[in-house]
Amino acid sequence: MEPRAEILPTTHIAHPRTAPPPTLAPHRAPRPHPVPLVETHADLGHQAGQVLVDNWRDTHTVPSDTLYPHQWSWDSAFVAFGLRHICPRRAQVELETLFDAQWADGRVPHIVFDPRVDADAYFPGPKFWQSSGAPGAPTVETSGLIQPPVHAPAAWAVHRADPEESTRRGFLERLYPRLAAWHRYLATDRDLGGRGLAAIVHPWESGMDNSPAWDLPLSRVEPLPGHSFVRRDLHHAAPADRPTDADYGRYLKLATRYRDHGYRDADTPHEFAVEDPCTNALLVAAELAMARIAEEIGADPTPHHDTAARIAGALVRLLFDPAMGAFVPRDALTGERIASVTVGGVIPLIVPGLPEEITEAVVDTLCGPWFRLTDAHMVPSYRLTAPDYSPRRYWRGPAWYNTAWLVREGLLTHGYDNLAQALRASMLETAASGGFREYVDPWNGRGRGSGRFSWTASLVLDLLRDPSGKLAGG
Asked: Region Disordered: which residues (predicted)?
């Protein structure tokens, strides 16, 4: 059974886009980035595989061997996409280990702490989160927050890498009910606005921790004083690259309140609750992948198609801003849109069946002066023309490999193959010259953050081995 070509109604949106930003080049004929030689590609693939081997810790992959010594949720999903090319079984174990830490309510924690690592090696660590005292928490120590749901597409891609081994181990059969519980948690417990969209209750849950998109709702939060906590991240990165102390104080204030209410969504008096377009678009893609998994194991795919269509409809209706030419977050507490365009606002291109005028508007925005897709390095995390844009500060301007990879998937989904190829070339070129850095300056391509970063290596490997795209089950 083939996947449905469209998941949205064929009627178009009522409000056409106004005042589109000018494009720098025709978006179906972009200026190509230099493509490394074949020999360089082979060497790049070998080096990427070596990063994944070196960052493997028996049951999972750490994002880096310096700043991030535990297992992170959406990192592991991105790692699985690349790891499947060199060891499909290890990629299966990566996801299985993460879901072994799933909570009883279905949530998948954003950090699973490795008990072999010093408890003080990362802050906030297990002593801060105190998950063992929370109802429904697993036996292993975790955080109480979540990250975007990239796991079902990763599971489907991992299965397809070696169907025989996957079937022999019962990989999909065992993971399917856990994935279903995870998606159910997002669609029910996290529908805090009652509008059919999942809400994040902390900036860290977006995966784009320090994004300017969260500044307005964060302004309601009184930060913890700087003297009340000790940051470990500044031991590994320059202060100018990381969130400010004031923002960090707000992050800890939100996490402390959530923890002190037992991580119960209904009982926590949230000061921050935002319907994030990236998270919800990924949930649509995840439900489409679940439909493929259901077909494979003999379950009914219809509920997953229906859920994907329902969330996609809400995403378009509530979060697309025609004047911006992009999707924007919505404050779940006030119902107001947040007028901030970041890379999270263009990632919903991964949703198939979007109305054509929305697709064209988002691609125009990508190619225009805000993101300069055809001549910047990868995809900036924030619009280049913003007065508070920073080319180096965490999620406030630098380009990241995982979000560029998702944008490329969206371009392929809607037939912008030339743009997708140019973005692929840009990612490979930047990785080849940067040592698999965590993120890069979109103007000059200079790498920043942690080196030998796992999802960078993994997604480079995926671009080299499987350039055809697969996120939504294609």
From this structure: 1-28
The DSSP symbol for 4 reads P
Q: Which residues are part of the catalytic machinery?
A: 209, 438
3-state secondary structure of 421: helix
Structural contact between residues 152 and 146, judged by C-beta atoms closer than 8 angstroms: no
pTM: 0.91
Q: Which residues contact 331 (CB under 8 A, 6 or more apart)?
A: 216, 217, 273, 274, 275, 337, 338
**Six token digits for residue 304:** 């997953």
- What is the token pair recorded at 72? 């992170």
Q: How long, in residues, is the chain?
A: 474
325: left (phi over 0), alpha (psi -120 to 50) or beta: left
Domains recognised in the chain with CATH numbers: 38-465 (1.50.10.10)
Write out the chain's pLDDT in tens, 474 residues.
333 334 553 333 333 333 333 333 333 333 333 434 334 788 999 999 999 999 999 999 999 988 899 999 999 999 999 999 999 999 999 999 999 999 999 999 999 999 999 988 999 999 999 999 999 999 999 999 999 999 999 999 999 999 999 999 999 999 999 999 999 999 999 999 999 999 999 999 999 999 999 999 999 999 987 656 565 555 555 666 666 788 889 999 999 999 999 999 999 999 999 999 999 999 999 999 999 999 999 999 999 999 999 999 999 999 999 999 999 999 999 999 999 999 999 999 999 999 999 999 999 999 999 999 999 999 999 999 999 999 988 899 999 999 999 999 999 999 999 999 999 999 999 998 888 999 999 999 999 989 999 999 999 999 999 877 757 554
C-alpha to C-alpha distance for 23 and 270, rounded to whole angstroms: 40
Do the Cβ atoms of 380 and 342 come closer than 8 Å? no
Token duo for residue 28: 């179906």
Of 232, 224, 80, 236, the residue nearest 159 (C-alpha): 80
Helix, strand or coil, per DSSP, at residue 206: helix
First to last CA, the chain: 12
Structure tokens at 339: 């007028």
